[in-house]
Amino acid sequence: MEEKKKHIEIHIDIDKAADQLNVHIVAEKTTVSELFACCLSTVSSAASIIANATNEDEQKVLRDIAAMVSQWQTKHWTRRTT
């Protein structure tokens, strides 16, 4: 049986003036785990590109991204729950 490939599109619009990201995901019939794996893969690819462009270690870039995500989550989650 032929396995059908799934297509997931992630569009990100960055609004620096409003300090906001607008994310739109187009995915049909995907599971949560497939979507999460896609997001993690995207972060990994971005870290590799950033590391190459800045001559930094990719693991350091990934740690920096994780720290930024943690700070963003704390800032935005707190705002939504208060």
Characterization of the model:
The mean pLDDT is 85. Helix content is 57%, strand content 20%. A two-stranded antiparallel sheet has the order 1-2. It is of the alpha+beta class. It has two helices and two strands. The radius of gyration is 16 Å and the shape is globular. The chain has helices spanning 32-54, 58-81, and strands at 8-15, 20-27. The longest helix is centred in the C-terminal third of the chain and has 24 residues, at 58-81. Strand 1 (8-15) and strand 2 form a beta hairpin. Helix 1 crosses helix 2 (58-81).
Give the averaged pLDDT, no decimals: 85
Physical arrangement of strands within the biggest beta sheet: 1-2
- Describe the global form: globular
- Sheet/helix structural class: alpha+beta
- How much strand? 15-25%
Total strand segments: 2
SSE pattern, N- to C-terminal: EEHH
Largest sheet at a glance?
2 strands, antiparallel
First-to-last CA distance? 51 Å
Task: Show unreliable segments.
Answer: none
* CA-atom Rg in angstroms: 16 Å
How many DSSP H or I helices? 2
Percent of residues in helical segments?
55-70%
